[in-house]
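Quick illustration, no need to memorize.
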Amino acid sequence: MKGWALTPRLRSAAALVRQDAVFADVGTDHAYLPIFLLTDGVVRFSYCTDINEGPLASARRNAEAAGLLSRTEFLLTDGAAALTDKGVSDLAICGMGGELIAEIIERAEWTRDKRVNLILGPMSKQAHLRKYLYSRGYTVLKEAYTTDAGKHYVTLLATYVGECREISDTEAELGLISDGRELSPSSRDYLLGKARSYEKSVRGKELSGAAAGDEREVLAAIKGLLENGIPEGRV
């Protein structure tokens, strides 16, 4: 691999960015993702945003070391609203909770455009983010699964379609896996992690005398998918 090395989680996000995109990375931290994409010739230009000057200064230093200052703009801002009229085609928001990612998208009305792809890497509250996206007219096109430092992650590729709908708790929790799509060795590992988490939640509620019907429903769906195995030909 040429260019800057990425963690498996960020490589998963990089793989969803379109060729020749005008790219933006919200909460860029050290700018590893945009530097990788620029160096590998995937994107034409990159915007790096962060709410704090420290990480943005680190991003500038790394871009300068890579000789990419002329193809990168750095914005000290909260979220993605400042990217209006920048011509961004592919927007990444990774390394945050699903609730915060939803808030950032909500404040960035320019993302309600069918030409814009969202690459979203929620560290938690994935179900909340999926429910938000569908309720606001976005749809999830693809989900990529990876394991990084022993933890399982999902990265969503979403875009605006203008059709708002509500999704079930199971679909919100499992995403595209819920109907058998995207089932692969990596998504199977992700499901196994989800199963362990839900089993712990169900046991905890039962011990406390609380109702666990919703959790049991999702757990049953997960077990059903795991028992069906991986369809032949899926990778």
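Strands lie at 21-26, 43-50, 72-76, 90-97, 117-124, 138-148, 151-160.
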